[in-house]
Amino acid sequence: xxxxTEIKMSAYEILNQALGMIETERFIALIQxxxxxxxxxRENLFREMTGKEISKKAMEFQNTLKTF
Length: 68
Hints:
The protein has helices at residues 4-19, 21-33, 38-45, 51-65. It is mainly alpha-helical. It has one domain (4-65). The mean pLDDT is 87.
């Protein structure tokens, strides 16, 4: 199991790769400012999608990561 610090560092790296440094900082500031319920957000995130659709999207995303 990874430590909290290791998880945070991985998240920063992923955000930086996807958004760049400036937008990563903006995202973090937005999250800290807002009352954000991750569990509630996640419950509704894929509500309109089937399991197969979610799997297909995940595989497509994984394939984009292999090109880096």
